[in-house]
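User: Some background: our group keeps a shared notebook of sequences we're curious about, and every so often someone picks one and asks for a predicted structure to add to the entry. Today it's my turn. The entry only has the sequence so far, pasted here. Could you supply the structure so I can complete it?
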Amino acid sequence: MRTALLVLVLVTVPLAGCSGLPAEDTPSSPTVGSPTTLPDGLSENGTVDTETLVNGHVETLREENYTVEKRIDVETENGTTLVNYAHVSKVGDDRTQAVDTQTYDDKRVDWWLNGTRTVSRTQRSNGTEYSVNNNGGGGTLGLLGGDALRQALDNAEDPTITTEDGTVQIRSTTTPADLVRGYEIVGGVNMTNQTTTVTMTEDGRITRYTTEFTGHPADDPETTITGTYDLHYTAYGETTVERPSWVEDARNAST
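Assistant: Of course. Here's the predicted structure to add to the notebook entry:
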């Protein structure tokens, strides 16, 4: 049986703009194809219970191996790149072992977590550094996605729901008053508008979370920036975690 996907699209319009939808437009009637079971926390009348959805997602990952791929891309309106960030985390079955890699600017950082220690390798153009800490990290590095889902749903107002062929689309127009997000920008981003898409399975598991946004750096309100934040969960039940070969070098370097 094919697993149905839940697609949530939340649109945030500029503070100074209008509603984002023409006044004469009215939501179309839901188009229903194959039956779709909505995850707990989401009802057909458009009610979204953020905490129930978040908890449902986290519970599906309690004893599962999986891979998380995260990207953040931000540039100014003239095309200058401010952020080019990639983060891949592979989490093992017992949730204590994980391999984690971040790349940004001229730096790459790798981690190995085994439940009792965290070993890291930082590579730059001018050399390589290692670190060993007696902290296992829990094997997830905070990438369960709960915080990301809260960001996607907390500002949702009066969403409309449509279903077709086993998918559900929720659309909401909101105004991000004083909304600030980090996005690897020093001081964060003062958001002016954002479009967020969250894809989930029927049991509430997130498979993708994407935000496209515009705004201004908190320390440079005259500069307009655009960006994309993408969090992709993949390889559920198919992710294997093995200790990287460089871990032995790290341990030798730390003794």
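Suggested note for the entry: The first helix runs from residue 50 to 60. Helices lie at 50-60, 146-153, 246-254.
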